[in-house]
Amino acid sequence: MNVNSTVIGKPISRVDGRLKTTGAARYAADHRPVEGRPLHAVLVKSSIASGRITGFDLSALQSMSGFVRFVSHLDGALIRTIKNPVDGAFAAGEEYTPFENDRVHFVGQHIGLVVAQTLEVAEAAAKAVVVDYETSAARIEFADPTAEVRQPDLYNTGEELQVSRGHVEAGLVEAVEIVKATYTTPIEHHNPIEPSATLAVWDGDHLTIYDATQGSVNDKNYVAFGMSVDPKNVRVLNPFIGGGFGCKGFTWPHTLIAAAAARAVEQPVLLVLSRKDMYTSCGHRPYTEQEVTLAADADGVLTATRHRTQSYRSLVGDHVEPCGMTTAMLYQCDNLEVTHSVRVLNRPSGTPLRSPGEAPGTFALESAMDELAEKLGMDPVDLRRRNHTDIDQRNGRKWSSKHLLECYDRGAEKIGWGRRKAPGQWRDGNDLVGLGMATACYPGYRMPTQTRLTLDRDGTLHVGVAVQDIGTGLYTVLAQMVAERFGTSPENVRVLIGDSDLPPGPLAGGSMTTASVAAAVDDGCRALSEKLRARLVDMGHTPGNEPLVIDGGALRSGPLSVPAAEVIPTDVHEIVAEGGSDDTYGFTGGVETDKSFYSFGAIFAEVRIDRDFGIIRVPKMTGVFDVGRVINAKTARSQMLGGMTFGIGMALMEETFIDDKTGRFVNPSLGEYYVPVNADVNEFDVEMLDIPDYDFNPFGARGLGEISNVGASAAIANAVYNATGIRVRHLPIRLDDLLEDLPR
Amino acid sequence: MHEFTLIRAETDEAAVSALTAHPDARLIAGGTNLVDLMKEGVETPTHLIDINGLGDLDRIEARADGSIMIGALSSNSSVAWNADIQSRFPMISDAILAGATTQLRNMATMGGNLLQKNRCFYYPDHNARCNKREPGSGCDAMDGVNRMCAVLGTSDQCIAAHPSDVCVALRALDAIVHVKGVEGHRAIEFADFHKLPGGTPHVEFDLAHNELITGIEVPGLPFAANSTYLKLRDRTSYAFALVSIAAALKLDGDTVDDVRLAVGSVGTVPWRSAGAEDAMRGAPATAATFSKAAEIFFEGAKPRAGNGFKIELAKRAIVRVMETLKEQAA
């Protein structure tokens, strides 16, 4: 690695920036079939939480001009039943096949689809479908005593959800201070600006899908299975995605329904989910109740840790919010118990939402650490330092690269931690001011990825891989990686992603794409380089040992310089090489290694709270992150800004309310589901340590994104405590949580 | 598909006669609320009567007697940034700018704002019971998610809070709503314009179907130059109020000479309390006086499970606003 690279780490503007800012970037719903116009589809969703569909009255639809077709479970086997959600080839959001039968498991379940000539007719027709139900008893309330409770063994990464080591009870006896408290986090939705959308176009047995998905390969395999066609005959295109945050990660029923409907009507079908559809069609973060026990000796050293998470799942979706997985890893503690249980309820299915587990889990753990520091009379940063470990507590391995202590130091310095006062003691006019902090962390994941590297006669490099840029900057990062390997500038690299026909890559989740493509690009560039050297030798040249540089339309190696147009025979137009890596890191069953891979950071927040009203403002947040080598300083920083904004939303605003009697989400709109507006976002101070982790991949990047909202809500909650002396153990924290007890 | 006919009215009379001819017609000006509700299927007009072409209704006329006549088609933005409004009635300007977004304020009209629908979560949801949307169906907010709902003026039929910002200011200023119908002009006291839900929560205004709001008259009130609007909410912008205060204060030395006080988002209509204002008039301009007035203001308030906090919050907000106005007056 060239540490003085002119490409890697530079704040290069997005190569796709112009397309995005001019509206030229086309998203799933913007596409149109090559021939003809698509029919428009609108979902019919259940209005009951549990029961059976006994019939549809479609009499009002038949007379509607432009109405084409209604499809439902009554159409028979439009879709092949998918028994197992994860058969290795794909992961689906629900272990349920749409239109499989007459069963209704939650409000908002897809029970039919109207296809019409226009969107307006489809919407009107969907409203006019009268559904007859036979309702049955529904379990909706979280505490419903009749709900089945499950204790799943593994998270979808293969990591253990029930962890025990040492003797917690013995550790409690050793302690001088114990914190035991229950923290809750609400139902939250992803709310990407672009709703999920699918355009399905059949050509004989060949299906092309323009889909708003975070995983084109996963999507392809799922749809191919459900449509009973060879995956080779399915192509998923997703060149641009308007945010996902997890709700476009696994494939959800609507994609399959659109494909099935298009086949049934023998015309292209466009299905764009409404904002309301988005609340019940593609997951949410379920409510969590977390009991955390932390015990420490007089030096603040943890003697026992217990983290019991209760959450829920739907009848058809197996998502578990893995809040305690961080706890099992983060601090040195020999006596630990982490459990997860889920109650099976008639609610829509959950799914990963930006930092699943880590975000709500660290709210609980890092709030409890703050409470423990208070009890011990210790500085919260100091308490964390005292429990720092260079060993992964889960498996005894060393971390590949961990510089968390430096994150604490830098963060404390930048926020001005020394200004912090005792709870409720810092006043400025009508404001109560406070500082809080929390540790941030996120696993380093890497998945098998293949790439295709091409040099054309102009001397332009092309890199192709079936991954996707969900707004993170991947187009630019890929161009930089290839440019780095061939000593050229990113402008000389064309990036092809968002197409499942390209060499396969992972879905955009787990902050793993950069790390995954890094190894694949490195290998692909090596393969292309070898081919080009062999070609130069064939041509009678003698390239030296110097790296092969491709710049200005020519190949250079030491003193040798040959125009690309000469290197590439006129009859082939380009030289193509493929390369990649089959290695998996961070997931169970991956590469055997003696290291553990994780990113770390420290988040600090300053809050100002009106002493009479309890309105909380966040004038400043500082985040210092140890995420390996940063490939692009600009897009990386943007990721962190987005995540910290997410953190403010999670801490102070976001909540989906459910009506416990009916099982309906009652605020399914961006007007009523609050996320931060510009005026809520003030000064963000982001710093990356930028220390390469070459054990993880040849570019030293560990990937980033999700880490930036891990710990953010706890840092804010801890700052609220510091400002007011009021400990709020649930999210979001609103003024009504503080009003009664404010130190006026 | 729900289709409607668009009629462009060229004159006030044409708008009124179109309304008279079509019992399920709606007027449309900015459309910032109506169009949303049409998309939700809550409003299903057979005819939309576009009144944007009506001549002088977008004028703002500052009169020599201190009053201002605001044409019903004036955009919220044009009123908020009007120099006479800002100097004579700053609470109106403050209230408008605390609401919605720049884009919405540019489209939304003053007449439309008077008719703004409530924002109860259950109102637009066809699967929920709502007596405003479907009379007699019941009220899911009563024992549901009611944090945003009202504590004053509620009935056993409806607890939806009135959501407007500027109406709170207009209530404090005793504005007069001017309307035109088939029988000519009518002037309605602002206090009478919005109706309490009682047993008929779907009847929201003292306005016949075929009446057109032409203007809002704000009577002269010199001491309203010392007025303000405070909005408390869950985020800094683009959120409905949890509680809002519109107030004006006139001091005579250390004594309250005159005062206006209206509170928003606590009532089913913009709320005034004669008792609270009377308690301040002639009393020393102290926190104790303001606090006592706040107590009186909320006498008889009926909180539900989720919205009791509004009472304490509003009381503190009243005191804060009065203290601020006192400092400004001094």
| CATH fold-level topology of the largest domain in chain A | Aldehyde Oxidoreductase, domain 4
Helix percentage range of chain B: 25-40%
Strand fraction band of chain B? 15-25%
Total domains of chain A: 3
CATH fold name of the domain at 226-329 in chain B:
Enolase-like, domain 1
CATH superfamily of the domain at 226-329 in chain B: CO dehydrogenase flavoprotein, C-terminal domain
CATH architecture label of the domain at 226-329 in chain B: 2-Layer Sandwich
Provide the CATH superfamily of the largest domain in chain A. Answer: Aldehyde oxidase/xanthine dehydrogenase, molybdopterin binding domain
Instruction: Give average pLDDT of chain A, whole number.
Output: 96
**Helix share bin of chain A:** 10-25%
CA-to-CA gap between the ends of chain A? 58 Å
Structural class of chain A: alpha+beta
Number of strands of chain A: 30
Distance between the termini of chain B: 61 Å
Overall 3D form of chain A: globular
Strand order of the largest sheet of chain A: 3-5-1-13-10-11-12
Which whole number gives the mean pLDDT of chain B?
97
Assign an overall shape of chain B. Answer: globular
Question: Beta-sheet strand percentage of chain A?
Answer: 15-25%
Number of helices of chain A: 17
User: Largest interface: which pair?
Assistant: A-B, 38 and 28 residues
